[in-house]
Design goal:
By secondary structure, the protein is α/β, with parallel strands linked by helices. The chain contains nine helices and twelve strands.
Length: 317
Amino acid sequence: MNNALSSYKNCRLCPRGCGVDRSAGNKGFCGETAALRIAAAAVHRGEEPPITGTGGSGAVFVSGCALQCAFCQNYQISQQGMGKAATEDEFARICLALQEKHAENINIVTGSHAAPSLAVGIRTARRQGLAIPVLWNSSGYETLEALSLLEDVIDAYVPDLKTLDSAMARRFFKAADYGEVASAAIKKMLEFRNLSYEGAVLRSGVIVRHLVLPGRLDATRDVLRWFAENVMGKGLLSLMTQYTPVRNGDTPHRSVNGAEYETVLDWLDEFGIEDGFYQELTLDMPANSDWLPDFNRVNSFSSELSTPVWHWRMGFV
């Protein structure tokens, strides 16, 4: 077994450290064996401006997830097993197909539990002519050891920092250590890459994403303070207000309201955070919104947002 791929044996790639032998076909907490499974790849035009650029971002959605948020909008692939096994060579061909469609970058979404296979696939794609940056788009819940497997192949990082509150993390992610782990991972990412651009398009660096949860503004304030103290001047903030109640259960049942939105914007001023982005508020976004992805469809997003290149049901489109 390749040295990198041997990490799947007694797997401790993610902070859960479940120790499952995924190389033998067993599934870890992430819901995955050692097989790299992908749900979709598309040129996506709904990311932050320096990621989207003019050509769109080459998003590759990896099946499974080590965090499994209770309110995940991609739950079909993160928690319900949707996706198809792809070899590292096929993953490389997907990357090259996205480049041929003029994507600005390769944007790997929730790939932490498959880091060894993805690292091999990226190196293969580079040898075959991949020349655009590769972005690591993650929950932030990952070990420093897994990040080290990617250090030489990832150009930019787009981690979440969902909360620093251990009780909230235990409730919504079943991971009380989320804040401690994610903040350490982000600091390591900042060590790996400085911000750099080609024109207006990000080529290197870190963008920290934070999703505002309705009724949970204290968590947002803590994250903004942490960002101001640890990231400001070295990375960018992306403040997101797109929370949508997509599933039943112990999660907020409404969207962010106008008063909450204005409060959060005031905090940006209070903490002096200027470098980054914040979403415009869409009030009362319905749970069946066409904006939400459906990975049963070949074009999992609205046609305005994406152009499909590969889908788990049919392969290359």
